[in-house]
Amino acid sequence: MTEYKLPDVWQWEDENDHLSGNRPTAGSRMEQTLPVGDAPFQIYSLGTPNGIKVAIMMEELKALGVEGADYDLFKINIGAGDQFGSDFVAINPNSKIPAMVDKSQTPQINIFESGSILLYLAEKFGQLIPADIHGRTETLNWLFWQIGAGPYVGGGFGHFFSSAPEKMKYPIDRFTMETKRQLDLLDQTLAKRPYIAGDTYTIADIAIWSWYGRLVLGESYEGSAEFLDVASYTHLMEWAERLNARPGVQNGLNAEYRPIKDEAEED
Questions:
Q1: Residue limits of the GST C-terminal domain (predicted)?
Q2: Whole-model pTM?
Q3: In Å, what is the CA distance from 152 to each residue of 66, 72, 183, 212?
Q4: Counting beta carbons within 10 angstroms of the beta carbon of residue 59, is it exposed (0 to 12), middle (13 to 18) or buried (19 or more)?
């Protein structure tokens, strides 16, 4: 292996023009008109670990009988660069899914980052977050834990285990160790209580299940469940399977993502 020599000033070498290619700059790359449905909430997302959080949250709210939680769900194809279109960037300048618009407010409210969306909906409808300060704080502790910890699993372990062009021992070892530490933390926590933040199901469970529940159920990164020995985390496995059986979770996973453009435009 050729030793990498750090330059004095980093320069971007992969200057390709493909819309979905990573670049060291932010902002829109093309004009875009996103469709807008009739429901109060317009969600622009994809079925990724971060994306499914919002669909699951909406379906859990509907299962609770919450009025005003209707939504239109549109697919942002990140492989085609939809996240860099002008309309999407106007909602989320960071060009990441999911993004949501609350049309029931005047003027409308744009919300981005999955944790922010979950918290916004929980507070708006007074659901899936405890009202008492102790329960609310513990829920937020774990919600923000997931937001900070998730990139080690996705961008770290998942990338080097599954997506990197070659297998490299050092980064795989480094991020596997951290991922297993996080799995052990969740397993120890769930040995003491039925849900992540305590005795009740909250947005912390939705956020963490979407990443870690799916991971231990073998739905992320082919071969990773065996590699990580997820069966050894018995309390985490039980929780993941229990949440997987919830109608709201299944309805969120099976929600239909409508296209943002017709087939003729895509061709």
A1: 132-263
A2: 0.94
A3: 35, 31, 12, 12
A4: buried
pLDDT at 15: 63
Residue 127 CA to residue 125 CA, distance in Å, equals 5
Tokens of 88: 């999407």
For 128, phi and psi rounded to 5 degrees?
Answer: 65, 25
Q: Confidence band (pLDDT; 50, 70, 90) for 17?
A: very low
Q: What are the boundaries of each domain within the chain? A: 133-252
What residue has token string 């004009």? Answer: 31
Distance of CA 68 to the CA centre of its chain: 23
Query: Looking at the domain that runs over 133-252, which CATH code has it been given?
Result: 1.20.1050.10
Residue 16: per-residue pLDDT: 54
d(CA 34, CA 44): 9
Q: What whole-number distance in Å separates Cα of residue 112 and Cα of residue 242?
A: 29
